[in-house]
Description:
Number of helices: 6
Structural class: alpha+beta
Mean pLDDT: 82
Order of helices and strands: EEEEEEEEEEHHHHEHH
Helix content: 40-55%
Largest sheet: 4 strands, antiparallel
Oligomer: single chain
Distance between the termini: 128 Å
Low-confidence stretches: 1-7
Shape: rod-shaped
Amino acid sequence: MDSRxxxxxxxxxxxxxxxxxxxxxxxxxxxxVRFDRGVLVGEVEPGQHKFPRxxxxxxxxxxxxxxxxxxxxxxxxxxxxxxxxxxxxxxxxSATTFVLASAGPEAELYTAxxxxxxxxxxxxxxxxxxxxxxxxxxxxxxxxxxxxAELGVLVSDVAVRDVVxxxxxxxxxxxxxxxxxxxxxxxxxxxxxxAALRSLLNxxxxxxxxxxxLELRALQAxxxxxxxxxxxxx
Length: 234
């Protein structure tokens, strides 16, 4: 708005434009992207600032955060659908790029992670997916890094959280474990029976070589027999 300030002796009236300002407070975890009349001016650091009301300030949270995309069924190289879930740790590295690069940078990052995960699983057989979690996570990290940088994001860590096989494979694996357990139990029983037979064979040989041992054993057994007598009736 315009306001009259002074009337000099010459008779010339001087007008000054009064610009209304607005306070903006940015917290330590925030960065501001400043626009003046629709033109990008630059980034604003944390603290208190005064800008004209025509200035638009986009706040960006730069704290690290975690993304867990929904589990997706990915076909492996041998045609088995495996359900895999990853956890992604990321943060905004450039507030300006984060605001300008996309209308939905988080959704773009989400899609990039899903595509990178799909590419990493497609090259492996289903039996290798669970065993190679770390390698898959490293490939996803590498595959998403370029797109993340284009969005003003830095991905610091990727981890494979869950690997779920189809129900048929899980049941087959369980049956295999049960069969292996039953096999080990049968083997232990056979070993016990073999040991018992070996002991009987050794006893038979001793009895054949030393007949007196049988008489001694009979006397020992007779000496340990306990006879239960009926109680007397009163």
